[in-house]
Amino acid sequence: MIRTAALLCSLLAGLATAAPADDLLQQSQALLRAGKLADAAEALERAVELAPDHAEAHHLLGAAYGRQAQAAGMFGKMRLAPKCRSEFERAVALAPDQVEYRESLLQYYAAAPAVVGGGVDKARAQAAEIAKRDPVRGDLAYATVAGVEGKPEEALARLRSAFTKRPDDLRLGVRLGILLQEQQRYDDAFAHFQQLVARDAAAMAAWYQLGRTSVLAKQRLTDGEAALKRYLGHLPGDQDPPLAAAHWRLGMIYELMQRVAEARAQYQAALRFDPEHAEAKAALRKLK
Q1: CB 245 within 8 A of CB 271
Q2: What is the pLDDT of residues 119-131, one digit of tens each?
């Protein structure tokens, strides 16, 4: 009876600490979305103090440190990067089957220098663990590692493999097409995005990327114009390129066509949607 009471007290104590930690987690997520990184990190530090075995709290704290490091100077990066790595590693240790946590750790290992615990070998080991749990995300993880290693053919093969396994995943299809753009395989990129929109005319992200391919390749400008006009006819979701970006890209196409007045109108439209759009501002200055 005494042992049962002690166990019950222990469980209730755990719940009492978990509830405030979850509240702090919600607060921190709102702060992260608002870009208040220091406040988010402070809230998450309190959360992991209250619930040291809360994997999500450690993962979010690592993300907060990582975003702070990106905006910091050299000394700040050297101070924050190990803290970011430590939190990601703790999250993976607490929840080894949570692929998202492993992906964050892989990104850290792939990007960070050895002096702060980075390393391609460590990243590849995480890719292997991810592949055991999710073959598609494993392909994506290996593609990231191949990109860091300077192996474009392997990266492309991995993305093709992922898309073959999950051909109805539009975001995956777009990611494959963007890699083709980055590798300047523009004919392949055109063909890929045309296949995506032929399969699903409502695949608006693919229409946008079709227009972007036209800009990057400086080819098939009429097709690019039509694709971006189609994209501009819908309201983008949170994960889609904003309308300001589409107007800017369309302006670039008109510049390539030497239709200066129409290019200017598109750059101005981009600034109406996003007054701080630096590329549209620069394009307008160049036209003047």
Answers
A1: no
A2: 999 999 999 999 9
List alpha helices for 150-203, DSSP H.
152-165, 170-182, 186-199
Q: Which residues contact 49 (CB under 8 A, 6 or more apart)?
A: none
Question: What's the CATH number of domain 28-95, 1.20.1330.10, 3.40.190.150, 1.25.40.10, 2.60.120.10?
Answer: 1.25.40.10
Provide the angle, in degrees to the nearest 10, between the axes of the packed helices 55-71 and 74-94.
160
**101: which 2 tokens?**
């946590």
pLDDT tens, residue by residue, 201-236? 999 999 999 999 999 999 999 999 999 999 999 999
Does the model's pTM come out above 0.90? no
- Three-point CA angle 96, 99, 102, nearest 5°: 70
